[in-house]
Amino acid sequence: MNTTTIKKFIEGIPKAELHLHIEGTFEPELMFKIAKRNNKKIKYNSVDELKKAYSFNNLQEFLDIYYAGANVLIEEQDFYDLTWAYLTKVHEQNVVHVEIFFDPQTHTDRGIAFDTVIKGIYRALQDGEQQLGISFKLIMSFLRHLDEASAFKTLEDALTYKNWISGVGLDSSEVGNPPSKFERVFAKALEEGFITVAHAGEEGPAEYIWEALDLLKVTRIDHGNRCLDDDKLVERLADLQMPLTVCPLSNLELKVVTDLKDHPIPKMIEKNLLVTVNSDDPAYFGGYMNENYLGITQALNLSKKQITQLAKNSFKASWLTDREKEKRIAQIEDYFQNNH
Ligand code: ADE
Ligand code: ZN
Predict the structure, then answer these.
(1) Cα Rg of the chain, angstroms
(2) 245 in helix, strand or coil?
(3) What percent of the residues of the chain are helix, what percent strand, and what percent coil, each to the nearest 5?
(4) Nearest ligand to the C-alpha of residue 202?
């Protein structure tokens, strides 16, 4: 298949994004603009200089830069502008449903009120639904390098916004911060009616995926690459049809894989795992949804049928109602029939 054909096919297919950190969509141009209006300093002198710093050997090197970037976000309007920029970008890419993470502790730890953060993000999501037709769910993620008490405090803050937040997640530095550290926080979150997900098996071992399933009672695993080290775990994930929200360009940029040609997606599909494709932190990893789909399609020689399956999976794995899922899956089926 030639590049133009496949690119057009990927661009046109309706998609859902299920693994996206809103702070990871902060493009350098917008970062400089917001820094200026807030009188905040950025360590780099220009957009180009900042972009040059985006070269990572592992997750931690990325996280250090990602948290530094978020420092310039102060006002509710900043969070609105960040979210709105993401929504307009993915609207062009035919992303019609998003389930996005926000990391409140990144901001509350700097003295920004939880309310300021969530109000800006939520207002943009509502505008995105009304003006762009993008449906959404919001997931509050706990930073796992911080302690349990901080997570409990954050959960407390979230209770006021229960109607706005569908689920809770777990992100940041994985190795040394196992899901078990947050078992009690997640138990309370479940009791309060939140759905749970967790990053597991990105850099951390398969054992962390077991813990996410058994202790945190997650309904999706974010990343999950390392499940392939453990046959019993693969069997369990396949039996459960537990979604994995996989992020190819993130994996490449954070050296989880050395080449997209070695990406585990084909192996995951072969093992009957419910794989979805997502962008994670697109402003830092060189691509949004379509670039991720295109990257793996070209590297792994995926067919239109396989791309179609991945797009269907994105809705199957979402938190939309069964009716909404069926509608989107039927749309994708029509698209495939008309475009292959
Ligand atoms: N926070 C933002 N992106 C992340 C990732 N890929 N892994 C863990 N925490 C993150
Ligand atoms: Zn992530």
Answers:
(1) 19
(2) strand
(3) 55, 15, 30
(4) 1
Alpha-carbon span 53 to 62, nearest angstrom: 10
pLDDT (tens, 9 = 90+) of the chain, 340 residues, equals: 788 999 999 999 999 999 999 999 999 999 999 999 999 999 999 999 999 999 999 999 999 999 999 999 999 999 999 999 999 999 999 999 999 999 999 999 999 999 999 999 999 999 999 999 999 999 999 999 999 999 999 999 999 999 999 999 999 999 999 999 999 999 999 999 999 999 999 999 999 999 999 999 999 999 999 999 999 999 999 999 999 999 999 999 999 999 999 999 999 999 999 999 999 999 999 999 999 999 999 999 999 999 999 999 999 999 999 999 999 999 999 999 999 9
Structure token pair of residue 303: 């067919």
Residue of 202, 203, 211, 253 marked active site = 202
Evaluate whether 195 touches 165 at the Cβ level (below 8 Å): no
Distance CA 293, CA 10 (A): 7
Look up 202 and say whether it is catalytic. yes
Residue found under tokens 């990343």: 223
DSSP assignment letter at 320: S
Q: How far is the CA of 241 from the centre of ligand 2 (A)?
A: 20
Neighbour tally for 126: CB within 10 Å: 12
The ligand 1 site (C-beta within 6 Å) comprises 21, 24, 59, 66, 171-172, 199, 202, 250, 280-281
Distance 209 CA to ligand 2 centre (A): 15
Contact assessment for residue 339 and residue 9, using Cβ atoms and an 8 Å cutoff: yes
How far, in Å, are 175, 221, 225, 279, 293 from residue 241 at the CA level? 26, 11, 15, 21, 21
Task: Answer yes or no: are the C-beta atoms of 220 and 243 closer than 8 Å.
Answer: yes
Contact 329, 315 (CB under 8 A): yes
